[in-house]
Design a protein that fits this description.
421 residues, alpha+beta, seven-stranded mixed sheet, four-stranded mixed sheet, 8 helices, 20 strands, globular
Amino acid sequence: MKLYKARKKDGTPIKFNTWDRYIIHNGEPILDLIRKIKQGYDTIKDNGVHQFQILGFGTNDTRKYDWEINGGTSKYRKKNIVFRYKGGVYMNTDEVIGSMPVTPMSKHFFRLDRPSGPMCLFRVNGSTVTSEYGINPDILITGLRNYMNWNVKDINWTEIIRDNDYFELVIDGYLYTMRLNFNMYYDYSYGETQYRNSVEVGPNGYTIPYHIDAISDEIIPLESPIGGNNVSQVLNHDAFFNNPRHDSNVTTLCGLINPLQQTNIYRETSYKLEAALFSNTDSKIPFNLFVFWDKYCRMSDRNRYSTETIDNFNNINIGKYWQPREAEIFGYPILSDKSRDAGSCMQYATFRINGSRRKYATQFNENSSYIKPTNYGKYTTWSFANNSYGCIYIDENGIPRNTDTSPIKEPISHLLCFRIV
């Protein structure tokens, strides 16, 4: 069988553009597969484990693996001892003093029996923090923030936390499962300055640094003080352009055409949720444990009353509290501008693993059994529909819809999303 090159009428070969993110291997995008291989390599490359030793205290089989904390400084444990401590199985990675406490975050100990599925790192309920793994969120997040150069492996954080692990937040009595997404834009570069990772943040530097984004499994209930009836995260085209603070002649959605414009529609929407969170006592207390970072996104712009995106890209600050774009949910644009979002979005792990459908958060009480969410709801995205002023939202079945074409204008709530590193 002969193979023929596709050619134009004049004989010029036709070259087809192929996006490497659309290359599929065994049903999985090739870039996701490469990322998993890299994470697995990082997990094992620094361990150097060649031999296991049993701790061996006593003759009772149920105790010989138990780790005992010894006072003083004279007792040392040899390297590679396997032991059990507070329900977990560990191995010490170097010789340690007997009085050293065992924690999952210590670089001297490696937990061997990490759950195969997602792990709840800690729960924050008001000023109370609990963790069945003994994880202190302040130490963990501070360590992650001080670990911006992930090539220097003082502590291999991928041994402790991974994609789809989560922490729980209780706000106004509602429980939110905050899924962690590691470096979803890491090393997916299509140009020298587009998505190169760096510690530099801002419009003048490489704007996608090493990062961890937390995205809730649950939709904020409409009746919540930070929910859809009280704080709308739906992008409102008309309200933005009709704001008297903006010059209607030069204002654009992203402020890319007019460099003097100090804000954009995404950042202004983010400010609404930020104000609600920090004016609400029940959310202000747990959120003071974290210091959130602005998220920068590569965006295309629109003029006033224009439904066409302008071929003008830049990285803009969309604020500390944001919503995912359509292509970050599905991995590709459906209703949004395909030529724009396709080149600037990566699918978050939480949506790839758990799907696009979301349920409303339910009430949580420490003293009673927790009833998991059962009611699916609508939540907004931060993508505009192609050739429309309407913002895209995800319905109860996980299907994208255009707010402009919705037959009934019902309130739409949102997810809780922020960048912690």
